[in-house]
Amino acid sequence: MKADLEVSLPAGQEDCAIQCRDVCRSYGKLKVLTNLNLTVPQGHIYGLLGPSGCGKTTLLKCIVGTLKISRGHVTVLGKPPAFPGHDVPGKMVGYMPQELALYNEFTISDTLSFFGRIHGLTSKETQARMNFLVDFLDLPQKHSLVRNLSGGQRRRVSLGAALLQNPELLILDEPTVGVDPVLRAKIWQHLVEIVRTGKVSVIITTHYIEEARQANVVGLMRNGRLLAEGPPDAVMKQHSATTLEHAFLQLCEMSDQTSSKLGSSPQSGPLEKSQSFESGRDESQPILAVGSPAAEELSKCSADWKVRARHMLPKWRNIAALMIKTMVRMKRMPGSLCFQFLLPVIQISLICLCVGGDPKGIQVAVVNNETSPSSFSQSLLSFLDNSSVNQVPLSHKDAFDGIYNGEYWGIIEFGKNFTSYLTKRMLQRQVSREVVDGGSVHVWLDLTNRQIALMLQKKLHKAFEAFVDNKLGSMSYTVALPIKFEEPIYGSQNTDFTTFVTPGAVLSITFYLAVGLTALSFVLERKEGLLDRCWVAGVSSLETMLAHLFSQLFVISVQIILLLLFILLVFKIPNEGSLVLVIILIVLQGVTGISFGLVISAAIDDEQSANQAALGIFYPNLIMSGIIWPVECIPYPLRYLSLVLPQTYASEALRCIMYRGWDLSRMMVWRGFAVTLGWNTFFLILATVILKLRT
Ligand SMILES: Nc1ncnc2c1ncn2[C@@H]1O[C@H](COP(=O)(O)OP(=O)(O)OP(=O)(O)O)[C@@H](O)[C@H]1O
Q1: Does residue 98's CB lie within 6 angstroms of at least one atom of ligand 1?
Q2: Where do the segments described as Disordered lie (predicted)?
Q3: Counting CB atoms within 10 angstroms of each CB, which of 299, 345, 388, 563 has the fewest?
C-alpha cells in the first residue's frame, strides 16, 4: 500500500527530517560517498535503494553521526547530528543498524527495558510499549533469550528496540531482511500508519526493491551517488518502467554510459547529474532538494557554552542503565563471572607454589672415605637438609660416572683423614697445604641449573655452620668465616624469592585481567554494533567508559579481596604496612589496566588484533618491570625504559609498603602511586583522542 502524501513540493529546511548536501566520505583511499545530495521530507517514508556496497549503510551512519563526513553538510531534524542539546543522537531518533546490535545474553524483555531506561521511559511506559511490540512484531515470549532466537526473530527484536520510544525519526537499515512476506507487509503498513500523523519520518534501506513502492520517496543510489530521487511512480514513469527494479536498471545503464563517455569508471569518475522528475528543474539537484543550506545558516546552529557543558556532563541515568546491563549480563554468565573472580587467585597461587621455593629431593652423590661413625664427616652430613638433598653414598668413580650421566647434581667428597686434618687446622697455628686440603669438604657441581647449584651451596654452608656451632663448641671461632651477618634491617633471614615476586605479580595480574576484559568487551560490542547503537540512543563515550569503569571496579574489588586473602593468610606473605595503601595501589593498577584496555579497543576493531596487542605487551612489560628479576640487573639504556613502565615503580612501592612498612611520606612509595595515576590519565586521554579521531 502506498501512502498518498504529496511529496513534490519543494521543502524548506525546517520541513526536512534529513538533508544531506555534497556529502563525501572515504575509508582511506576508497571513496564511498561522493557529493551526495539527499532530502527526507518531514512525515515521509524514504526508501534508500541500491546494490550491495554502494554506500547506503555508510550514509546512514553519517546521518546518525557515528561516522564523520569528510566534506559537505548533514542536518537531522534541523540541526547537525550530535549537536549539543539536540536529541539526535538521543530519543528523537530510532536507529536499527544492519548488524542487529543486540546483547545475546539478554531476554527480549531485558533488551527493551535497557533501551527504555536509556530513553528515560518509566517502567510502565516501557511495559506498555513492550506489550504492543511483542504483539505487533509477532515476537516470541518476552523472557526468551536473544541468543536462542532465529535470525528473523532477532531482526524483529532489533526493530522493536528502534520503535520503542516512538521516535520522530526512524533510521532503519534493512529491517525486512529474513522476515516473512506477511510480517514484511505488516511492518510497512505500520510505517505508513505512523508517518500519516506527519510527525514521524522514516528512512529505510532494503534489498527488496519492489516493497519500496510503498515509500513516499525513493532514492536510487549507486557508487556512492544518488542517481535519482522522487516518488516511486514518478521514477517508473520517467523510465517507462513497470517496476522500480526496471527503472533502476535503466538508470544504472545510463549512469554507466555517461561514465564511459567521460572516459572514467563509475567508481572514480566525475559526478553524474542525478535524475530529476520535474521538468525545467536544474538536473544537478534531486527532486526534493532545496539547494545547499548556506554555510552561515548551519553556523547559526552553534549552541552557547552552557548547553555544550550540560551536554558534555555524563547522565547518571545512562550510566545506571549501562551498569544494570553489565550486571544482568554477568548474572546470565555465572561461569564467566566465577572465572573472572577465581583466575587471579589461581594465578597467584600457582606463582606462590611454583616460583621461588627451594628445590626438593635433589640427588647428590656422597663419597665419604672416612669410615668411623663418630667422624666429623658423618656429623657434618647429618646436618644437611634431607628434604632438599638426597644423599647417595658412592665410590669416587661411580659418583663421577653418575654426574656425567646427569644422575646427580653434585658430589660431596671427604678425604680419609678429614677429621684429623680439620682438628689440626683448628689447633695448630701453622699447617701445611696438605692439611688444609685434607681438612676441606670437596664439592663438584653441575652448574647447568643455577638455582639448584645455588641451593646446594647454601645448604652446605648451613650444614657446616650448624656442625661448627654444635660439634666444635669453643673451637668454632677458629674455622668460622670472618664475616658475620647481623639481624636483617628489613625482611627476615628466610625471605625467599616468592616474597620478592608476589607484590609485582599481584599488580601484573590485576592489570592484565583488566586490560583483557576491557579490550575484549569493547571490541566485541563495537564489532556487533552495540556501542554505535547505544551512542545513537544518546549514550556518550564518556558515559560508556564510566559505566564500564564502575562495573569493572566491582569485579576488581572481589578479585583483590580474594588475592589478598590468599597471599596473606594462605601463603603467609608478610605485610608490615597499611593494608589500605596496599588495596588502593592494586585498585589503581586495575584502573590503569582498564584505561589501557580502552586505548586498545579505541584503536583496534577486531578481537584478534586486540588479543595480539594485549599479548604483545604482556611479556616485555612483565620482564622489564622488575617483577620477576630486579630492575638493577637490567642494562642501562633499557633500565630507563623500564622505569617509565606502569608496574616498575608501583611494584617497588608495594614491596616497600608490605615488607618495610613504609607509608606515603617515603618517596619510593608515593612515586609508585604518582606513576600509576600518571599512566591512568595518559591512557584515558589517549583513548578519548583516538575515539574522536576515528569517528
Ligand atoms: N569500516 C570500513 N572500512 C573500510 N571500508 C568499508 C568500511 N565499511 C564499509 N566499507 C566499504 O564501503 C563500501 C560501502 O559499504 P556500505 O556498507 O556502506 O554498503 P551498503 O550499500 O550498505 O551495502 P549492503 O547493502 O551490502 O549493506 C563498501 O565497498 C565497503 O567495503
Answers
A1: yes
A2: 258-283
A3: 299
Question: Does the C-beta of 236 come closer than 6 Å to ligand 1?
Answer: no
29 ligand 1 Cβ < 6 A: no
pLDDT one-digit tens code per residue, 77-111: 888 887 766 666 788 899 999 888 999 999 999 99
Whole-structure pTM value: 0.80
Report helix, strand or coil for 585. Answer: helix
Distance 57 CA to ligand 1 centre (A): 7
Q: Report the nearest-CA residue for atom 6 of ligand 1.
A: 27
Q: Are 448 and 402 in contact (CB under 8 A)?
A: no
For residue 201, count CB atoms less than 10 angstroms from its CB and return exposed for 0-12, middle for 13-18, buried for 19 or more.
Answer: buried
For domain 18-92+167-267, the CATH superfamily is P-loop containing nucleotide triphosphate hydrolases (3.40.50.300)
3-state secondary structure at position 407: coil
Nearest C-alpha neighbor of 79 from the set 288, 302, 308: 302
C-beta of residue 472 within 8 angstroms of C-beta of residue 457: no
The span from the CA of 119 to the CA of 569, in Å, is 48
The strand pairing partners of 10, in sequence order, are: none
C-alpha cell read off for 584? 588502593
Q: Which atom of ligand 1 is nearest to the CA of 55?
A: 18
- Do β-strands 45-49 and 201-205 pair in parallel, antiparallel, or remain unpaired? parallel
**In angstroms, what is the span from residue 69 Cα to ligand 1's centroid?**
14
- Complex ipTM, two decimals? 0.97
Q: How buried is 461 (Cβ within 10 angstroms: 0-12 exposed, 13-18 middle, 19+ buried)?
A: exposed
Domain extent listing, the chain: 18-92+167-267, 317-353+496-694, 362-479
